[in-house]
Amino acid sequence: DAGVIQSPRHEVTEMGQEVTLRCKPISGHNSLFWYRQTMMRGLELLIYFNNNVPIDDSGMPEDRFSAKMPNASFSTLKIQPSEPRDSAVYFCASSSVASGRYEQYFGPGTRLTVT
Amino acid sequence: AQSVTQLDSQVPVFEEAPVELRCNYSSSVSVYLFWYVQYPNQGLQLLLKYLSGSTLVKGINGFEAEFNKSQTSFHLRKPSVHISDTAEYFCAVSVNRDDKIIFGKGTRLHILP
User: Fold this and answer.
1) CA atoms within 13 A on the CB side of B85
2) How far is Cα B103 from Cα B6, in angstroms, rounded to an integer?
């Protein structure tokens, strides 16, 4: 298995621009998570989906952030408009609780820099 | 609310010496416990997990952890560390078989030559 795939790996953009991060979970996994990691705040859960349905989006910072999961093999996290304080590493993770495997598998992350 | 506490933000240890990274959680119900490792510029990787059964859990790279229900702890240990163990280590808990995992703030392990 290729693991969780994220793209792009690095993104540099100017303040005010729209940013879209992409994630392909491990095939067969039915839960998908988006995290943000910064030095100041550590690892934060932004939103998670179960069977493509958003279950908990309480970690989404504000309306500038939105996430979708149109099918079991693809999810996006969009920031519009982006701000310098959004600079962070964004991780996607997936798991398969239904199969009794509760651990999450993380992608390599997308390093976002907003100037 | 459930929480995970990693008391040490950084732990320096000499190469080939033993190490213990501490983790405590707060929950009165059944929990699943995890340790993850994050090497520089990489994602998090599962080291080991406790779901049930033996309270001593062995993981990859020679690490092990012990679940102690009475002390609500899940400390990570390794008898002899190597320079390649330099990384950040995260303790995490899943409560009541929930999809969501609560992560601690992480402990940076510095290996001294």
Assistant:
1) 30
2) 10
pLDDT per position as a tens digit, A28-77: 999 999 999 999 889 999 999 999 999 999 999 889 999 999 999 999 99
Task: Name the average pLDDT for chain A.
Answer: 94
The DSSP string of B71-82 is: TTEEEEEESS--
The length of chain A is 115
B contacts of A91 (beta carbons < 8 Å): 43-44
Please answer yes or no on whether A91 and B43 come within 8 Å at the CB atom: yes
Tell me the sheet residues that pair with B92.
B34, B103
Burial-class residue B105 by CB neighbours within 10 Å (0-12, 13-18, 19+).
middle
Burial of A72 (0-12, 13-18, 19+ CB in 10 A): middle
For residue range B60-108, list pLDDT tens digits in order.
999 999 999 999 999 999 999 999 999 999 999 987 666 788 999 999 9
Residue with tokens 């997308």: A110
Residues in A 6-65 with any Cβ partner in B closer than 8 A: 31, 33, 42-43, 45, 48, 50, 55-56
Flag whether pLDDT at B14 surpasses 90. yes
> Which residues, 6+ apart, have CB-to-CB distance to B35 below 8 Å?
B21, B23, B46, B47, B48, B49, B59, B63, B65, B74, B76, B89, B90, B91, B92
A89: tokens are 């590493």
User: What pLDDT score does A1 carry?
Assistant: 66
Q: Closest by alpha carbon to A48, among A28, A23, A27, A82?
A: A23
